[in-house]
Amino acid sequence: MNKTRVILNVAIAAVVFFMWIRMFLSEGGVLAGSGFSSMKYFTVLSNQLEGIACVVWLASARKGGGKASAGAETFKYVACVAVMVTFCVVALFLGPIYGYRFLYQGSNLWFHLLIPLAALFEAVFLAGLRYTKRDNCLAMLPALCYGTFYLINVLVNGKGEWPDTNDWYGFLNWGWGFGFLIFAGIAFTSWMLGLILREGARIKK
């Protein structure tokens, strides 16, 4: 069993759930929330997915005598792409709007930056796998599912007004057409990130 990878997975899982509990109990502010309202954000959900994937991988590796199952490895890959989507959306889209100082503080420093980079390091340098095109397509599912929920929620319940808006990311500020375009771009970004991870892991070999 790769001890470095085990330590990294334990650390990621512990940090993810500790930081979410911290947010749950006390935090608020820009793109953060207290209580269960924090779970409306893709940032929180993608990091929780990564944390769960770490726990699944650790259990599978232990059961397999040091080698995790193919399903556990694919789950890790999908979760890594999800948190890298968070990283890219914050760095390229939300950061210029809300300001990086607000988006890289408290729990969001870990959720927006450090956990995604740790997951990226593991996927490329420690996993030792050649991810497939099927895995690449599966990596799009978290963003597609979240985008579908987000748009349907606004359609059914209305956009609302700040701070009680259902468009908490402001993706529909420029209209539905642009909102759909943003989510299509995020889905494409998921696919591209999956491809980059596949190629990065292949070149690393």
Task: Characterize this entry briefly.
With 205 residues, the chain is mostly helical. 73% of the residues lie in helices and 0% in strands.
What does this structure look like?
With 205 residues, this protein is mainly alpha-helical. It has one domain (3-204). It contains eight helices and no strands. The chain has helices at 3-25, 42-63, 70-98, 100-103, 107-126, 133-138, 141-157, 176-204. Helix 2 (42-63) packs across helix 5 (107-126), helix 3 packs across helix 8 and helix 5 (107-126) crosses helix 8 (176-204). The longest helix is centred in the middle third of the chain and has 29 residues, at 70-98. The radius of gyration is 17 Å and the shape is globular. The protein starts with a helix and ends with a helix. The relative contact order is 0.13. The model has no long low-confidence stretch (mean pLDDT 88).
Percentage of residues in DSSP E strands: under 5%
Query: How would the global form be characterised?
Result: globular
How far apart lie the N and C ends? 18 Å
Mean pLDDT: 88
Instruction: Specify the biggest β-sheet.
Output: none
- Rg calc: 17 Å
Number of helices: 8
Order of helices and strands: HHHHHHHH
Number of strands: 0
Which regions have little confidence, pLDDT < 50, spanning 5+ residues?
A: none
Q: Based on helices, strands and strand pairing, what is the structural class?
A: mainly alpha
**Percent in helix:** over 70%
Total individual domains: 1
